């Protein structure tokens, strides 16, 4: 899920909805028949987008809903601040802002970029829980709601 694939739809009577379009990289999410738990999705390649979570760059199977959680955090941050937090979580990109983020130096990153006054503590916590570098610890979409 990315910002360019989100449409704001006026549904009438002053109500708005977000609709998703262009599911070009959508995947089928498989679940374990016995437990209902989400099964890992095989890696099949990706387009170079700056909002990709770090596990995608490992080029192995991943939990698709946790990728969506990351993208929601990235998109929320971008909508509130009008800038990306970092340009790439790809280790090959050597992004200094990603290195600060990945090491947990959020205060340094936010201060350096002048974002601290822009975001409330609740917004920061929400975004950082969605963007935990460890997908197992990352907030799920259900938990985010």
Notable characteristics:
Prot_kinase_dom, two-stranded antiparallel ribbon, alpha+beta, globular, 32% helix, ATP binding, Transferase(Phosphotransferase), domain 1, 145 residues, Protein kinase domain-containing protein
Structural topology:
Elements: E1 6-12, E2 15-20, H1 64-81, H2 96-102, H3 106-113, H4 121-130, H5 141-144
Antiparallel strand pairs: 1-2
What is the β-strand count? 2
For the biggest β-sheet, the strand order reads 1-2
| Architecture (CATH level 2) name | Orthogonal Bundle
Question: Which structural class should the secondary elements be placed in?
Answer: alpha+beta
Mean pLDDT: 86
The domain count comes to: 1
User: What spatial form do the alpha-carbon principal axes imply?
Assistant: globular
Looking at the structure, the CATH topology is: Transferase(Phosphotransferase), domain 1
Q: Report the CATH superfamily.
A: Transferase(Phosphotransferase) domain 1
Structure description:
With 145 residues, this protein is an alpha+beta fold. It is built from five helices and two strands, in the order E-E-H-H-H-H-H. The chain has helices at 64-81, 96-102, 106-113, 121-130, 141-144; strands at residues 6-12, 15-20. It has a two-stranded antiparallel ribbon with strand order 1-2. The mean pLDDT is 86.
Could you write a compact summary of the structure shown?
By secondary structure, this protein is of the alpha+beta class. The chain has helices spanning 64-81, 96-102, 106-113, 121-130, 141-144, and strands at residues 6-12, 15-20. It is built from five helices and two strands; from the N terminus they run ββααααα.
